Amino acid sequence: MKNIGFLSFGHWSPDGHSETQSAQDVLLQSIDLAVAAEELGADGAYFRVHHFARQLGSPFPLLAAVGARTKRIEIGTAVIDMRYENPLYMAEDAGSADLISQGRLQLGISRGSPEQVIDGWRYFGYAPAEGETDADMARRHAEVFLDVIQGHGFAKPSPRPMFPNPPGLLRLEPHSPGLRDRIWWGAASNATAKWAATLGMNLQSSTLKEDESGKPFHVQQAEQIRLYRETWAEIGHERAPRVSVSRSIFPIMNDRDRMYFGRGGKEDDQIGQIDNMRAIFGRGYAGEPDRLIEELRGDEGIAEADTLLLTVPNQLGVEYNAHVIGSILEHVAPALGWR
């Protein structure tokens, strides 16, 4: 059995072929797609975060709105770039969004991805400390965030407060119990996956990772997941970890599907350079359901994960993306034992 959700990058463009012409379009349609996915029986609505881009930028208003419009579906990110974040302010936003959704937030965070601008986090007022890299800064921000959302008091109260204080040191409010167990780290390497396990975060592994062995992407991803789980067991965390992987999967059910995705061209892994890292990009899947089922049976990365995030082409609109999600849930997932 798998938890199956969608992952939207939230692109918008004034291009005449796009169903999301503006930021308002993509925000409102993101909410509508989450509602539609819940009605179809999907388990999660996840959103990518990019700054300085025509994509979703500030996740918490969107997550709160989705939480208010839905009842069951998990709501998350994949991922928030921690180089840009004030971890205390983020803890307040995350606590609020989680309380609105009644504990359904699944928050993916990470060191981030290649940016639209040079050192964009500097415009947000952040810079690595002496001897730090920007990745070190992201991990430092993450560790502060993880600490404060546990709800421990740490701030000395004023002797003359505006309102009466509870006794002892004060914590950030609003606090949402249980949120600490629903934080995920987006890991591109085996080393960062093990680091995430050490800190008790769930693991998000996307459609790319550092090419560390030359093996096929799905094999390297499966090895990364096994290393993560081994580290988790060694640390001795009390709860079981969760692991998600992302995939582009498009069943060909009609002529429109065939027009968009029936031409092939993404059946093989790709190699590229990202921030001086040799990266391997996983293949996509498109085809008739019977063919998809056979190909997906051999994907070792999916087999190792408990959660599958389906990357959706959000610019094609809510109706079409709901059709894609529904086709997978009805015609592909049952045959693979995901449902």
From TrEMBL:
InterPro entries (UniProt xref): Bact_Lucif_Oxidored, Luciferase-like_dom, Luciferase-like_sf
The organism's place on the tree of life at top rank: Bacteria
Residue span(s) of domain Luciferase-like: 9-257
Pfam families reported for this sequence: Bac_luciferase
Class in the EC hierarchy, top level: oxidoreductase
Annotated PANTHER family: BLL6902 PROTEIN (PTHR30137:SF15), LUCIFERASE-LIKE MONOOXYGENASE (PTHR30137)
Protein name: LLM class flavin-dependent oxidoreductase
